[in-house]
From TrEMBL:
SUPFAM superfamilies the record matches: CoA-dependent acyltransferases, Peripheral subunit-binding domain of 2-oxo acid dehydrogenase complex, Single hybrid motif
Biased composition (Low complexity): 153-162
Residues in Lipoyl-binding domain copies: 56-131
Family assignment from sequence similarity: Belongs to the 2-oxoacid dehydrogenase family.
Renumbered residue ranges of the record's region Disordered: 137-170, 212-237
Pro residues compositional bias, start-end: 222-232
EC number from the UniProt entry: 2.3.1.-
Official protein name in the record: Dihydrolipoamide acetyltransferase component of pyruvate dehydrogenase complex
Highest taxon above the source species: Eukaryota
A single GO molecular function term of this UniProt record: acetyltransferase activity
Gene Ontology annotations for the cellular component aspect, listed alphabetically: mitochondrion
Keywords on record: Acyltransferase, Lipoyl, Transferase, Transit peptide
Residues in Peripheral subunit-binding (PSBD) domain copies: 173-210
Lineage: Eukaryota, Metazoa, Porifera, Demospongiae, Heteroscleromorpha
Amino acid sequence: MFSAVRSGVRAACRFHSGRRVSSVGLNHRVIAREVQRSVVSRWRGVHTSPAIASPLVTFNLPDVGERMATVVITEWLVKEGDTVSMGDALCEVQSDKSAATVYSPYDGVVKELVVEEEETAHLEKPLVVFEVEDGATGAEEHELKQSPPPPAESAAAETTPPTQLPVSSGKVLATPAVRHLAAEKEVNLADVVPTGKGGRVVKEDILNYINSNTGPTVSGPVTPPPSPPSPPSAEDRVEPITGFKLVMVRTMTESGRIPQFGYKDEVDMNKLVELRSLLKTRLSEGGVAFSYMPVLIKAVSLALVHHPVLNSTVDPDCTTITYRADHNVGVAMDTPLGLIVPNVKRVQEKSVYEIAVELNRLQSLGAAGQLPPVDTADGTFSLSNIGAIGGTYANPMLLPPSVAIGAFGRVKVVPRFDSEGDLERGHVMHVSWAADHRVIDGAEVARFSNRWKNYVENPASMILDMK
Ligand code: CAO
């Protein structure tokens, strides 16, 4: 009985592949059962049986965006008989609105390309039939949805189920044939300048690379040259503004309506640079990265105690002002997803060390794109350390409903005169403040800045005012 089902399944798969049906003698009861199984599997986007050594699976056209019911296959990037890996590009498709690439959700062999080039493929209808290793699909229980860009070449990608291929920033785009050629010639695809469509490495790129390189193709500890910037696109590209960018549109548009007072000063960083180099090694032993920020943040909180209006919020029509009890100091972060401003909560109660630990946590979450709303909500003051990237001055913009923000430039080594009039090596940093000029006057900002600057220039003095 079991073997009958097995052979029936094999037969049904062959039938499905549309090739050898005439050569297979089918038991009708088994056919009926397998057709039923096929219907269920097709609904899931997969036609397979886990009992077979190399089952055939049908990959249906996934949603390539906006649930387009049909697309035209503009180019197949694989051919029947090709061996593909999960994440390899299969074909280019074009809908009414956009072009997209469809990627393989399996490791296996392409048995059949169901739709011809220039023909129409239908959403959730068969696109490719694969032969996969026994148990390699892992997709039987999932409906295959949108086909995203290929996975990164990492251990994480290997464990990711096909329905959730991660967005990749690192995977090199190439067809299986090109990958095969690269492997044969021992060329690392990441070293090759892609000239193909959509930044894809094509065969000629590999050959050009081999012709122009003698060293890097052989294995060994050779540092690859930095990749050149992608060539400019031949066509304009329109994309919707979503996610963090959309939040930035709304927040900054609102901010732009507020009259803002700007104030800038130079800060002597000599003592803080020295203090940091003392503490940095110590803290790094405990796994805590220690930058200037924890001290700069704590100095803000100490100064806010004397200038509470800078830690206030105003309602949208600016009729009431709320003096906030907690110093929840936001830190603008440049993350892979865009600008985000998580805040260190209750800085007034935290030591510099505790602020460093919290900042490390926020930075790790930000870098992973995993900051929860609680970390970004309820900031009362903001800082932007644009100097971590570069620059001297900035014009920071308020993050409503808070009423003040500061931006730091890069700490620079400059010639300075000491108290004796002798030239010395000095570290300076510029700070640029912006405040809501509807509720805060310039003199208040200057006094706040002087107090903050005094703490930063004499970090030891902070001890006296810390609780
Ligand atoms: N001047 C000189 N060196 C600086 C510096 C500055 N202003 N700021 C940071 N550095 C150094 C740090 O000391 C650290 O040095 P080490 O490697 O020797 O330890 C290194 O640069 C990396 O620091 P970091 O960036 O990891 O940590 P940070 O606490 O200084 O800053 C953060 C954290 C999140 C503010 C920063 O990484 C960042 O994202 N800045 C960009 C903010 C931004 O985009 N602002 C614009 C907002 S408006 O669009």
